[in-house]
């Protein structure tokens, strides 16, 4: 019980920090420089062009409308994931709006687009890292996927939604502002990856089907000092059963493995997959207990 309470306190500390950073990006950088972005923030920016309400109040209204739709269509379980941030983020937005602070001394849309992307990405990254989410276009994308397009990947639906928001912004705020929004969106996505996974050594997954399975296992374990797992696989064309080896290693080590296979079994079938991060106790991997 104490451990759960401690974990929740830590989560809320980071959520408050994340929401403060994200709200600062909006109130002190984005709005003073006339910029926009995708997501619910972009929707509110479009509405703000026609309605003269405070940004925070409009964001609150939009977030709660989406939250109600989520509860009605997907269920309360999904709504719980976004409830905390739905309440916390607009409240911090409202407080920071009162200060009317501007980060840049004079209007500079290029710098503003960059810094807005950095701050927004840090905000989203921390929220995702702690296992929470915003009630915005991601929630809308989940609804669309579940109710109308179950065969389409949610990331593609989300990309389409954000693209539509930015395109509409181009008609309202101008093409240049829409292009700056793309810059902001790109930087934000990269910052999310950095916050969640860091600049650690990238890992690749190498899947190997070879007639020299035992020799390959020995090379991986002794020469590369890596672990290897195997599973049985059947080629439907030949009907032959072989071992499929799975190796997680660095890109450099994958090239050494490729050279070994080229010499020992030129007929080997190899698939190399990019992996953002690996949690485990192996060499070069991030401990699963780190930053929890």
Description:
The chain is of the alpha+beta class. The chain folds into 2 domains: 2-197, no CATH class; 203-275, Alpha-Beta Plaits. It is built from 10 helices and 4 strands; from the N terminus they run H-H-H-H-H-H-H-H-E-H-E-E-H-E. A 4-stranded antiparallel beta sheet has the order 2-3-1-4. A hairpin with a 6-residue loop joins strand 2 (229-234) and strand 3 (241-249). Helix 1 (2-30) packs across helix 4 (76-99) and helix 9 packs antiparallel against helix 10 (251-264). The longest helix is centred in the first third of the chain and has 29 residues, at 2-30. The radius of gyration is 24 Å and the shape is elongated.
Q: Report the biggest beta sheet as strand number plus sense, adding barrel if it closes.
A: 4 strands, antiparallel
Helical stretch tally: 10
Q: What is the count of distinct domains?
A: 2
List the secondary-structure elements in sequence, H or E: HHHHHHHHEHEEHE
| Fraction in helix | 55-70%
Overall SS class: alpha+beta
What is the β-strand count? 4
Beta-strand content estimate:
5-15%
Strand order of the largest sheet: 2-3-1-4
- What's the gyration radius in Å? 24 Å
Mean pLDDT: 89
Distance between the termini: 17 Å
Form type: elongated
The poorly predicted ranges are none
Could you give the topology of this structure?
Layout: H1 2-30, H2 39-50, H3 55-73, H4 76-99, H5 109-129, H6 137-147, H7 154-173, H8 175-197, E1 203-209, H9 213-223, E2 229-234, E3 241-249, H10 251-264, E4 269-275
Antiparallel strand pairs: 1-3, 1-4, 2-3
Protein name: DUF2179 domain-containing protein
Subcellular location: Cell membrane
Membrane topology: Multi-pass membrane protein
């Amino acid at each position: 019980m104490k451990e759960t309470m401690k974990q929740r306190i830590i989560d809320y500390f980071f959520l408050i920090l994340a929401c403060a950073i994200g709200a600062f990006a909006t109130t002190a950088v984005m709005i003073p420089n006339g910029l926009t972005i995708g997501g619910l923030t972009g929707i509110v920016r479009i509405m703000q062009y026609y309605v003269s309400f405070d940004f925070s109040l409009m964001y609150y209204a939009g977030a709660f409308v989406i939250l109600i739709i989520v509860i009605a269509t997907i269920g309360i379980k999904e709504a719980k994931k976004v409830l905390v941030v739905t309440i916390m983020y607009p409240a911090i937005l409202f407080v920071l709006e009162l200060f009317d602070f501007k980060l840049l001394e004079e209007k500079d849309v290029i710098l503003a687009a960059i810094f807005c992307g950095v701050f927004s990405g840090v905000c989203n990254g921390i929220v995702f890292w702690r296992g929470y989410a915003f009630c915005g276009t991601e929630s809308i994308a989940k609804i669309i996927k579940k109710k109308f397009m179950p065969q389409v990947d949610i990331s593609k639906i989300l990309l389409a939604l954000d693209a539509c928001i930015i395109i509409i912004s181009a008609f309202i705020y101008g093409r240049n502002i829409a292009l700056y929004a793309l810059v902001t969106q790109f930087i934000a996505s990269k910052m999310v990856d950095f916050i969640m996974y860091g600049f650690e050594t990238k890992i690749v997954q190498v899947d190997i089907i070879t007639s020299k399975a035992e020799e390959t296992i020995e090379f991986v374990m002794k020469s590369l000092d890596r672990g290897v797992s195997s599973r049985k696989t059947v080629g439907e064309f030949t009907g032959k059963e072989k071992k499929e080896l799975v190796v997680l290693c660095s890109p450099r080590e994958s090239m050494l493995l490729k050279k070994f296979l080229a010499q020992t079994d030129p007929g080997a079938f190899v698939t190399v997959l990019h992996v953002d991060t690996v949690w485990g106790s192996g060499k070069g991997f991030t401990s699963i207990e780190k930053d929890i």
